[in-house]
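Changelog-adjacent note: as of this version, every example in the card shows the full chain rather than a window. The one below runs 139 residues end to end.
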Amino acid sequence: MAIKPWKTIKSEVFKKTPWTTFKENDFEMPNGKRGKYYFVSTGGSSMVIPVTNDNKIILTKQYRYLVDMESVEFPAGGVKEGQTHEDAARAELEEETGYKAGKLEYVGEFVPMNGVTDEISKVYIARNLIKGEVNREET
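Full-length structure tokens:
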């Protein structure tokens, strides 16, 4: 059975920040019922799985304000305006780990929180790593 998409009747931005846009959409379901959907809209994100020459995976540890704890993560971050997903992957890898990717391979994508955001995160494997300096953003 084919999935019938919902129809967007109206889309409004009610708050825009440097990182995200908050939207309110009026929609109609296939059965004719209408409703409102509130969500975060982004330019997407990139996640990197850095693999060393001896096949070890590099993770980062960062404090996350919303959950008030440290989080162990793959390097990842949002795609900025004018940037490609690959550009973002390379930038986040270097910013969060200090490594540059000699080789970056796209392996797939996922929607991290499909009930909360329209963000699509593209995943890359980084190999032939070159060590540099960590240069994390404050946020």
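Structural remarks: Residues 7-41 form one domain.
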